[in-house]
Each structure stands twice: as C-alpha cells, then as structure tokens.
C-alpha cells in the first residue's frame, strides 16, 4: 500500500486525482468519528466531506514531522464536529438508527434499551469527554495520538476517557434490574 | 447477555457505518470545482478572505499596511494640529 506521504507529495505536485486514494482510505473512520460526535448521520456526512475538502486546501501546511496524516485529518474532523455541535441543538437519542442483530426478540428489546441508554449517556457527556471517549473507544487511537488531536497532555486524555467511562458506567448501573 | 458483552456489541454497532458509493466522487467533484475557480474569481469576498487566511505572508503584509496607514494618519493629524497652532498663535 502506498504511504500517505507519497500520495500527499503526488497531490502537491499536481496530481489532484491521487487525493481520492486518501479519501477512500480514511472516509470510514472519519465518517464514523463525526457521526459518533454529532449523533446525526447527515450532518456527519457533510462534516466528513468538509473535512476532506479542508484537508485538500491546506495540504501544503501538513507537516509529517509533527503528526501523521490521519492524526491531522482527525483533528480537522474533530474541530468541525465540535463547531457543528455548537450550532445545532442536540438530537434526541431516540432518533438514532439501530443495527441490532438478535434471534431472541426479548433479548433484542433489552439490547435496544441498553444501546439507547448508552447513546443518551454518550450524547450527554461534556464535549471534551465525548471526543476523547469516541477517539479512544471507537477509533481505537492511543492516548498520545488523542492528546495531539486535542492539543492536551496524555494524562489529561487518560483522565477524560476514564471520566467518560465512569459516567457511562453510572448510566448503566441505573439499568440494573431492568436488563434481561 | 452480560453487560460487558452488550457494551462490546454497542461499540461494534457504533463503528458500523454505511458510506455512499459516491462519497469520494462527490468530494473530488468539489475539489475539481475549487481548482477550476481558484484564480478566476479571486476578488469574490469569500475567496479573497480564504486566500488571505491560507497565505500568512499576505496576511502579515495587510496587517503591516494597515498599521502603517493608521500610524501615518495619526502623525498627519498631529502635524496638522501643530501647524494650525503655529498659524493661529
């Protein structure tokens, strides 16, 4: 697989089409991240497109000595997602699309309820906790990578992820006795 | 199902996302449009602001020019006031 930096150099040399390789490589993690932060698929898709467009326009400012391309891209996506969150009112968690696969309808109901409670708890998290949690748990980024994206210390990120998990755990504890 | 299994299922569920086949093409279309209109419409306000914001030297030159103009105006005003004082006095 061609290294990101080689593709970037190709784009900067005038091969605009090469940028499509970067889009195809990162569209899924970027869209997944923006969706998990904004909690709205259509907004997330617009943000993901804006992210790639902004990345293309500022590609000449990318410095591989400071961060990897994916970290740089996630930083743009995270900033755009937070800006969108500030502009939009929160969407009720009931509107979330479900993708539950279970043979047992009773199981399904509990699982759905469980997912809804977690979704609600996730969306109620303060923005900084939410973004740290999404990047760590869904994007599987390391704490130091998240620290670069957030412009914070690694220990701060560890604390944010821990506090986010605590809050989610608290939300789940309220479900005790209701589940299964 | 145990809570941990449900939690893992939730995480997996949150990672499942459908991307339209045309996502990359649409984004590339936007990029091609941008490239085509990059220099043809530079004096459109939005493009001008965009151009200035991504070129630090242009930004610095404009700020410097603004500063020089401001200081010149202050000096000019002071000279005018002093001259008036000399003429009247």
Protein model, in words:
The complex is a heterodimer of chains A (180) and B (89). Chain A folds into two domains: 1-90, Rna Polymerase Sigma Factor, Chain: A; 92-180, Arc Repressor Mutant, subunit A (Orthogonal Bundle), CATH 1.10.10.10. Chain A contains eight helices and no strands. With 180 residues, chain A is mainly alpha-helical. The longest helix of chain A has 20 residues, at 19-38. Chain B is 80% helix and 0% strand. Chain B has a domain at 42-89. Chain B is an all-alpha fold. The interface between A and B is medium-sized, with 35 and 27 residues.
- Give me the count of strands of chain A: 0
| Low-pLDDT residue spans of chain A | 93-103
Instruction: Report the count of strand segments of chain B.
Output: 0
Major interchain interface with per-chain residue totals: A-B, 35 and 27 residues
Shape of chain A: elongated
Distance between the first and last residues' Cα of chain B: 97 Å
Q: Which architecture of the largest domain in chain A does the CATH hierarchy give at level 2? A: Orthogonal Bundle
Q: How many distinct helices of chain B? A: 4
Give the overall pLDDT of chain A as a whole number.
Answer: 85
Structure keywords:
heterodimer; A: 180 residues; mainly alpha; Rna Polymerase Sigma Factor, Chain: A; Arc Repressor Mutant, subunit A; 2 domains; 69% helix; elongated; B: 89 residues
Would you kindly provide a brief summary of this structure?
The complex is a heterodimer of chains A (180) and B (89). Chain A is mostly helical and 180 residues long.
């Amino acid at each position: 697989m061609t290294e990101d930096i080689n593709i970037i150099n190709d784009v900067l040399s005038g091969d605009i089409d090469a940028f499509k390789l970067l889009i195809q490589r990162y569209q899924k993690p970027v869209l997944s991240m923006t969706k998990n932060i904004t909690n709205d698929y259509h907004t997330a898709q617009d943000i993901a497109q804006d992210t790639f467009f902004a990345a293309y326009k500022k590609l000449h400012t990318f410095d591989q000595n400071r961060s990897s391309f994916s970290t740089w891209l996630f930083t743009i996506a995270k900033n755009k997602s937070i800006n969108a969150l500030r502009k939009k009112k929160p969407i009720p968690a009931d509107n979330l699309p479900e993708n539950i696969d279970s043979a047992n309808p009773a199981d399904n109901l509990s699982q759905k309820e469980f997912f809804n409670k977690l979704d609600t708890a996730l969306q109620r998290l303060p923005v900084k906790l939410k973004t740290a949690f999404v990047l760590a748990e869904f994007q599987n980024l390391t704490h130091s990578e998240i620290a670069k994206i957030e412009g914070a210390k690694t220990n701060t990120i560890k604390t944010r992820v821990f506090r986010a998990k605590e809050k989610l755990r608290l939300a789940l504890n309220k479900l005790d006795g209701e589940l299964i | 199902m145990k809570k941990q299994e449900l939690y893992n299922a939730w995480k997996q569920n949150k990672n499942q996302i459908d991307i339209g086949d045309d996502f990359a093409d649409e984004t590339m279309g936007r990029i091609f449009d941008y490239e085509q209109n990059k220099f043809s419409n530079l004096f459109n306000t939005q493009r001008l602001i965009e151009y200035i914001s991504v070129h630090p030297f242009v930004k610095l030159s404009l700020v410097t020019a603004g500063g020089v103009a401001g200081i010149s105006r202050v000096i000019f005003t002071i000279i005018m006031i002093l001259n008036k004082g000399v003429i009247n006095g």
